[in-house]
Amino acid sequence: MYIAPSLLSCDFSRFGEEIERMDKAGADYMHLDVMDGHFVPNLTFGAPILKWVRSYTDKPFDVHLMISEPLKYIDDFADAGADIITFHVECDSDIAETIGKIKSHGIKAGLVVKPKTDISAVYPYLESIDMVLVMSVEPGFGGQSFMADMLQKVKELKEEVTARKLKDFLIEIDGGIGEQNIKMCAEAGVDICVAGTSVFKAEDAGEAIKTLKALCE
Ligand code: DX5
Ligand code: ZN
Q1: What pLDDT is attached to residue 48?
Q2: Ligand 1, atom nearest to 195 Cα
Q3: What is the DSSP string of the chain?
Q4: Counting atoms of ligand 1 from 1, which one is nearest the CA of 42?
Q5: Ligand 1 pocket test, candidate residues 30, 141, 192, most atoms within 8 A of CB
């Protein structure tokens, strides 16, 4: 299992050092939550901030856009050093065009589904993306409880991806992941778990990541 700590739970006065700390702790990806106060009721940061902290790690930047019009900002996030950009299938931008824009930068593109959205919403795009992110909480805030029924979506998606013989396709899950549920995620077919609270609130982030990974073996 790959672990992507969500920097939403970090100390933003030391954003760069927090990224460095997660790198040393064994994070596989850095999960960066971008919110616009419109698509979700919270605000975080934009591309200029990401550009400032990009040099603190060589690990891939997994940028999760919770914004109404992702298409407008793809160039900025790609130029800032994103390696993966995921955006919501529920957004207002043209989905195919936004995927094309991401891919034009030679980076990975993914679609995200909110808890109330059917997983079939991403099926028309599976051949043109690299990843699907299944939300296991309502997007907007860290520290919420894991919605176990979202694992059904992961299972359905996994079957669909296998049936279509899509190679190297990644399934990510985000929200409320910790020691108590990561094994279930692995069994359902998840490749990457986002973990905010469970890694950042741990006394030793390295131990927390190690434990999360060990629980999936
Ligand atoms: C929520 C974000 C998540 C969040 C996860 O909208 O997309 O990435 O930070 O945090 P935890 O692991 O605390 O639920
Ligand atoms: Zn996220």
Answers
A1: 98
A2: 12
A3: -EEEEBGGGS-GGGHHHHHHHHHHTT-SSEEEEEEBSSSSS-B---HHHHHHHGGG--SPEEEEEE-S-GGGGHHHHHHTT-SEEEEETTSSS-HHHHHHHHHTTTSEEEEEE-TTS-GGGGGGGGGG-SEEEEESS-TT-SSPPP-GGGHHHHHHHHHHHHHTT-TT-EEEEESS-STTTHHHHHHHT-SEEEESHHHHSSS-HHHHHHHHHHTT-
A4: 6
A5: 141
Task: Say how many Å lie between the CA of residue 8 and the centre of ligand 1.
Answer: 7
**Which pLDDT band holds residue 30 (cuts at 50, 70, 90)?**
very high
Taking the model in full, what pTM does it have? 0.98
| Protein residue whose Cα sits closest to atom 12 of ligand 1 | 196
Across the range 58-67, mean pLDDT stands at: 99
